[in-house]
Specification:
about 230 residues, mainly alpha
């Protein structure tokens, strides 16, 4: 019964996220089109890819820390005009978010590099499908979503391990992590397909852009008075 309720909750969230998800799919598709279609955008994107590759994991850590942790909170304070709905910027939690997303950036960059070595960098259907399957059916449910859910739970409980243990005792993964996974599949499966259609040097920058937009959309949709904006990645 609990599992059925969790699945139903996740499916409701996926349906609720359909419209913002379509916007993110459109953004990702436009970036892919800008790279492959004739025009002036490809040289700029190739320069970005070369810059990212030259800085390697340093770029991944700094970029994802900014686009996943810092920029969404600051943009939310500008976009949401009602002061009562704006997220409060708590320094300790902002520091935690910055560090957490920096580590996630290194982690995702490692995943992208491993997939490129294992399956190649061709932008064909079979290569993209293999990468999407591993990303969303293995990495996502086995590590990305559980670690994200636990990290945000720890932060939301003011970094209190006893309170985290208490929350975990109430079927946390069935009631929180599983609905989060189902909801994010609806947004991220098409998005990572677009990401893997790009060269390796552009995959993380596009992921960062979508992550920032997704965090901002969640904040404007919920309008909850929270210390920070919560978001999820694959």
């Amino acid at each position: 019964m609990l599992m059925r309720s969790a699945i139903a909750q996740g499916l409701r969230a996926a349906r609720a996220n359909l419209r913002p998800g379509l916007l993110l799919w459109l953004v990702a598709t436009l970036v892919v089109a800008a790279y492959y279609l004739p025009g002036g955008a490809r040289p700029a994107l190739e320069s970005l890819a070369a810059f990212k590759q030259s800085w390697g994991y340093g770029f991944a850590v700094v970029s994802t820390a900014l686009w996943g942790g810092v920029i969404p909170v600051l943009l939310t304070r500008l976009v949401i005009r009602d002061p009562g709905r704006r997220p409060r910027v708590v320094p300790l939690k902002m520091l935690f978010l910055t560090a957490f997303w920096g580590l996630k950036g290194a982690e995702v960059n490692l995943l992208y590099e491993w997939l490129a070595r294992s399956f190649g960098s061709q932008a064909n259907a079979s290569t993209i499908l293999c990468k999407v399957a591993i990303d969303q059916l293995l990495y996502g449910p086995l590590w990305a979503v559980p670690s994200l859910a636990l990290a945000y739970l720890w932060m939301d409980e003011d970094f209190s391990l006893p309170r985290v243990r208490q929350a975990l005792g109430h079927q946390f993964f069935q009631t929180t992590a599983l609905p989060m996974l189902l909801a994010n599949w609806g947004v991220w499966i098409p998005t990572v397909a677009a990401i893997y259609a790009l060269p390796l040097g552009l995959q993380l920058p596009l992921q960062n852009l979508v992550l920032c937009l997704w965090s901002l959309i969640l904040a404007t949709m919920t309008g909850k008075r929270q210390p920070v904006v919560t978001s999820a990645r694959d």
